[in-house]
Specification:
Length: 299
C-alpha cells in the first residue's frame, strides 16, 4: 500500500481498540490507498507490527472476516496474513504483517517476475480448489451480477457509439448479450475477487509470494479473477500469462476465455463512458486502451 501525500489520521477510538490486542502500541502509520474509502494503518508495539483496517461497508467487513477464516484453513501463514482481532461495530480488522513489498511497480528481473507469476497462479489454484460447493444462493447472486453487467454494457452502447470503431462497438454489444449465458454454463469457485499485483506481496529475501486484501472474496466464476491481468498486463507480457497458467495448472476453456474477454470489455467501456461523462481524459484513454486490446484478442 502507498501512503497519501496527506496522511489519514489514526482515529483515537481505533487506537484504543488496537492497544487492547497489541499491548505497548507505540505508532500507527497510514498505509491507505489513495482513495477515500481506503483506511489502513501499519501499527507497531516495539518489534511487533500488524495492520489495522476499517472496512468501508458492513458487506466488505463480513466478506473479509470470512476470507480470513478460509485462508487460515487453507493457506500457509507465509501466503496470507492471519486475523488477530475484529470488531463489527468499528468494522475494524487487525491482522498480522506479511514480509515483503507490494508487487505492482516493483522493479524485478525477468526471471524473478516469471517465477513470481507462476507462484501466484499456483496459490490461486490452491485457493480455488479449496472452495466449498456452491449453493443455489451463490449461483443466484452470481447470475444477478452478470445480468447487471450485461445491462451496464447495453446502457453504454448508445453513449459510446460515436467514439468506437465497428469492431470495438460489436464487442460491447456482444457483452450486452452473452455475459449471463456464458456464466450460467460455468462452475463457481470461491474467489479472492481482486487478485492483482497491487494485492500481491513479494519477499525478496525468501523469494516467497503472499496475497492480501480479501474484501471482495465471494463465490464467482474463476475466469473473472483474471480480468485486471488480462486487460492491463498480459497483452504486453504474454510470457507472464504463460507462467501464471503454468502455476495455475490448466489453461482456460474456450467459454472461460470468451467470458474473460467480454468481462474485460464491459470494464473498458465503463471507463470510456464515465470518462466521457466526467470529461476525464485519463478514463477515456484507459477505456480505449482496454477495448483496443480486447479487439486484438482472438479467443
Amino acid at each position: 500500500m502507498t501512503t497519501h501525500q496527506s496522511a489519514k489520521p489514526f482515529p483515537p477510538v481505533l487506537r484504543d481498540w488496537v492497544a487492547q490486542h497489541l499491548p505497548g502500541l507505540d505508532s500507527g502509520e497510514d498505509r491507505s490507498w489513495p482513495r477515500a474509502t481506503s483506511r489502513v494503518w501499519r501499527v507497531s508495539a516495539g518489534s511487533r507490527s500488524a495492520f489495522v483496517k476499517i472496512s468501508p461497508s458492513t458487506g466488505d467487513f463480513e466478506r473479509e472476516v470470512a476470507a480470513y477464516a478460509f485462508t487460515a484453513a487453507h493457506l500457509h501463514p507465509s501466503q496470507a496474513p492471519r486475523m488477530l482481532a475484529c470488531d463489527p461495530q468499528l468494522r475494524a480488522i487487525l491482522s498480522s504483517a506479511l514480509p515483503g513489498r507490494v508487487v505492482r511497480d516493483l522493479p524485478l528481473q525477468t526471471a524473478t517476475e516469471l517465477r513470481l507469476h507462476e507462484d501466484a497462479g499456483r496459490l490461486l489454484r490452491r485457493w480455488h480448489d479449496a472452495s466449498a460447493p456452491a449453493t443455489s444462493a451463490d449461483r443466484a447472486a452470481v447470475q444477478a451480477d452478470m445480468d447487471d453487467q450485461e445491462r451496464e454494457a447495453a446502457d453504454c452502447v448508445e453513449h459510446v457509439r460515436p467514439y468506437l470503431a465497428a469492431d470495438r462497438l460489436a464487442l460491447v454489444q456482444d457483452a450486452a448479450k452473452e455475459l449471463s449465458g456464458l456464466a450460467q454454463a460455468l462452475p463457481l469457485v470461491y474467489r479472492h475477487g481482486d487478485y492483482e499485483t497491487r494485492n500481491w506481496l513479494f519477499d525478496q529475501d525468501s523469494g516467497r509470494h503472499g496475497v492480501i486484501d480479501f474484501a471482495t472474496a465471494a463465490p464467482g466464476v474463476a475466469a473473472s479473477e483474471f480480468r485486471w491481468l488480462f486487460g492491463a498486463l498480459w497483452p504486453r507480457r504474454p510470457d507472464l500469462r504463460a507462467a501464471y497458467f503454468t502455476g495455475y495448472g490448466r489453461p482456460l476453456t474456450a467459454d472461460e476465455e470468451r467470458l474473460l474477454q467480454l468481462l474485460t470489455v464491459r470494464l473498458g467501456v465503463s471507463y470510456l463512458r464515465n470518462g466521457l461523462a466526467q470529461a476525464r481524459e485519463d478514463l477515456v484513454a484507459r477505456g480505449h486502451l482496454v477495448l483496443d486490446r480486447m479487439a486484438a484478442h482472438r479467443p
